[in-house]
């Protein structure tokens, strides 16, 4: 007869713990496991004893240290650290109790970023009464669905936006910041909210701090994360806020930064687009009067037809030169000579109106002069590599040896008549 059965008869205290050791119950069916066994409130010092071997006296459970690496041991250590940390510093609840009653803003689920400026999620706008008690008179919602807020004298702005990296939030930042500034100038408390209060609303609030307090993206974001530790905007919003910083915290639609961003957004949706948005194209220089005197006009070298202006050129950082083309050569590339960067042999420009017929319905192709059909360059919505090694996406390139630069002369006054 097995020992466990003898133990079951001798002492009823082992009944529950040995239930299943003989295969008769629902307990642990592995009698030869190497892990320590708990029997009736005691822990065996070794593995299961084979028949005929006298068991060593069992030690009380509290007398043995937790097994190294076990979850039980980790829990015990965490418990000790938690008790020591709780004893060394007051808890959040204790600190709040020491300060007094909960503020109306906290009761409404809002976090105060600055005096009269709050951050929150869907619950923050659930009760108009809570907004009124907190002194909030304006609500900016950045969400997929507009909230059904019915409160007198409550100013609202709804910005439809999904919490996805591909969402265009950059082009709406100026409107959001202006709304908050106007409401605060009128003495209203402002709540900026989204569904969870950790991504879209955080991105808009970060832009507001960047603009009004002249903070970098990193500093403004870190500041909000100290207030809302759960704040975590998606990588697409982070990239857009860095572009916002590069433009001086103001969306400049005429800047090369914004034009390149707008092209990339169109590229993400291009296969599904049937028509390209007209604001994507620069005005054909032949259809308007001459631009500013400091602008350079580029003409076809063969027929002298005006093609684009210098304001349509999208500058890019210099690439790594010949090293970037090593994958295209069977032989090892020549080492790049320091101080002699590879020149760019093409102008990368924004699409111009005369290009539209060539761009529709295709992903890549040639760019021909609209007058003489001379080959000027090429385009590719997926991108092309500049001669300097930099990859440009999307790419609309005009070869420099196919165009001439024409600088406008200063305007001369009307000729004077002689008496």
TrEMBL record:
Boundaries of every Tyrosine specific protein phosphatases domain copy: 167-229
Occurrences of domain Tyrosine-protein phosphatase (ranges): 109-250
An example molecular function term from Gene Ontology annotations: protein tyrosine phosphatase activity
EC id: 3.1.3.16, 3.1.3.48
Pfam families in the cross-refs: DSPc
Keywords: Cytoplasm, Hydrolase, Metal-binding, Nucleus, Protein phosphatase, Zinc, Zinc-finger
Ranges of residues in domain C2H2-type: 298-332
Any one annotated GO CC term: cytoplasm
Top-level EC class as recorded in UniProt: hydrolase
Family statement: Belongs to the protein-tyrosine phosphatase family. Non-receptor class dual specificity subfamily.
The name this protein goes by in its record: Dual specificity protein phosphatase 12
Gene name of the encoded protein: DUSP12
């Amino acid at each position: 007869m097995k020992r466990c059965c003898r133990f079951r008869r001798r002492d009823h205290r082992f009944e529950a713990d040995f239930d299943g050791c003989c295969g008769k119950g629902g307990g642990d069916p592995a009698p030869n496991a190497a892990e320590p066994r708990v029997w009736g409130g005691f822990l065996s010092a070794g593995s299961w004893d084979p028949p005929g071997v006298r068991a060593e006296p069992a030690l009380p459970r509290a007398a043995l240290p937790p097994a190294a690496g076990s979850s039980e041991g980790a829990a015990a250590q965490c418990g000790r650290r938690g008790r020591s940390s709780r004893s060394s510093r007051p808890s959040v609840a204790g600190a709040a109790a020491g300060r007094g009653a909960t503020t109306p803003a906290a009761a409404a689920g809002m976090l105060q970023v600055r005096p009269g400026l709050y951050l929150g999620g869907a619950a923050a706008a659930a009760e108009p009464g809570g907004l009124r008690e907190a002194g909030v008179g304006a609500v900016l919602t950045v969400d997929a669905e507009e909230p059904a807020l019915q409160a007198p004298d409550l100013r609202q702005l709804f910005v439809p936006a999904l919490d996805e990296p591909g969402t265009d939030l950059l082009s709406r930042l100026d409107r959001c910041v202006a709304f908050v500034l106007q409401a605060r100038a009128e003495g209203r408390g402002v709540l900026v909210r989204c569904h969870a209060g950790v991504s879209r609303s955080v991105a808009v609030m970060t832009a507001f701090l960047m603009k009004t307090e002249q903070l970098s993206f990193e500093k403004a974001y870190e500041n909000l994360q100290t207030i809302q530790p759960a704040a975590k905007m998606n990588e697409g919003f982070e990239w857009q806020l860095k572009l916002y910083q590069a433009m001086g915290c103001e969306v400049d639609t005429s800047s090369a930064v914004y034009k390149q961003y707008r092209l990339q957004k169109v590229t993400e949706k291009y296969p599904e687009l049937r028509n390209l948005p007209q604001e994507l194209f620069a005005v054909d220089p032949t259809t308007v009067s001459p631009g500013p005197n400091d602008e350079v006009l580029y003409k076809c070298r063969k027929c002298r037809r005006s093609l684009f202006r210098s304001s349509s050129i999208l500058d890019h950082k210099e690439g790594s030169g010949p090293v970037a083309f090593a994958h295209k050569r069977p032989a090892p590339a020549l080492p790049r000579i320091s101080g002699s960067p590879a020149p760019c042999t093409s102008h990368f420009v924004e699409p111009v109106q005369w290009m539209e017929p060539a761009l529709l319905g295709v992903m890549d192709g040639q760019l021909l002069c609209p007058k003489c059909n001379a080959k000027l360059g090429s385009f590719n919505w997926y991108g092309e590599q500049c001669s300097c090694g930099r990859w440009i996406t999307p790419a609309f390139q005009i070869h420099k040896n196919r165009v001439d630069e024409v600088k406008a002369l200063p305007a001369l006054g009307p000729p004077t008549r002689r008496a």
